């Protein structure tokens, strides 16, 4: 459990429950194939049954870390920083993105959009979940919509979500990894019939990198 002083700093976004940080190749969506530094923060109550980082859900298991040290380390690796989780918007992202911007770094976020949008972002990847739908502000500002397809019903959900985002938002359908062999042919057929969508794959898993 956090003491009261640390908890206050976390609630202000001056410290974050840091699960992991690593330099790798972005594997998904619009920026796939490019080098980026990932900051994964703990804490998420959206609860997707197929989540591949369930260990991120409990924020108490990840050490509260000062954003200054997170940013200093990130700046030594890349000029593109991807904040992910967990659900990063559980926390106030304002102080972190301000510190990253002070280093002239590009700020990207991967979010379900379930909580109020905070922070200054150069790229917002919105991956909505049925359990907790995105806020109106995230829909308006999203640069890409990435819907995870686990079964046929998810195509209807994807269309419902596409109606909510702005007209310039890029639309992606991505197979859930554990059922990819069954789902990929369905996605291919769907995108060919509905070419406003693009296919996103978790290419980092095919490359065997983090």
TrEMBL record:
Quaternary structure and interacting proteins, as annotated: Homodimer.
Record-linked Gene3D superfamilies: Aldolase class I
Cofactor note as given: Binds 1 S-adenosyl-L-methionine per subunit. Binds 1 [4Fe-4S] cluster. The cluster is coordinated with 3 cysteines and an exchangeable S-adenosyl-L-methionine.
Cofactors demanded by this protein: Mg(2+); S-adenosyl-L-methionine; [4Fe-4S] cluster
This enzyme's EC code(s): 4.3.99.3
Pfam families tied to this protein: Radical_SAM (PF04055)
Residues of the Radical SAM core domain: 31-210
Homology family: Belongs to the radical SAM superfamily. 7-carboxy-7-deazaguanine synthase family.
Keyword annotations from UniProtKB, A to Z: 4Fe-4S, Iron, Iron-sulfur, Lyase, Magnesium, Metal-binding, Queuosine biosynthesis, S-adenosyl-L-methionine
Class in the EC hierarchy, top level: lyase
InterPro entries: 7-CO-7-deazaguanine_synth-like, Aldolase_TIM, rSAM, rSAM_sf
Annotated [4Fe-4S] cluster binding sites: 44, 48, 51
Residues that bind S-adenosyl-L-methionine: 50-52, 86, 127-129
Purpose of the protein: Catalyzes the complex heterocyclic radical-mediated conversion of 6-carboxy-5,6,7,8-tetrahydropterin (CPH4) to 7-carboxy-7-deazaguanine (CDG), a step common to the biosynthetic pathways of all 7-deazapurine-containing compounds.
Catalysis: reaction(s): 6-carboxy-5,6,7,8-tetrahydropterin + H(+) = 7-carboxy-7-carbaguanine + NH4(+)
Residue numbers binding substrate: 25-27, 40, 84, 210
Protein known as: 7-carboxy-7-deazaguanine synthase
Record PROSITE patterns: RADICAL_SAM (PS51918)
Pathway the protein contributes to: Purine metabolism; 7-cyano-7-deazaguanine biosynthesis
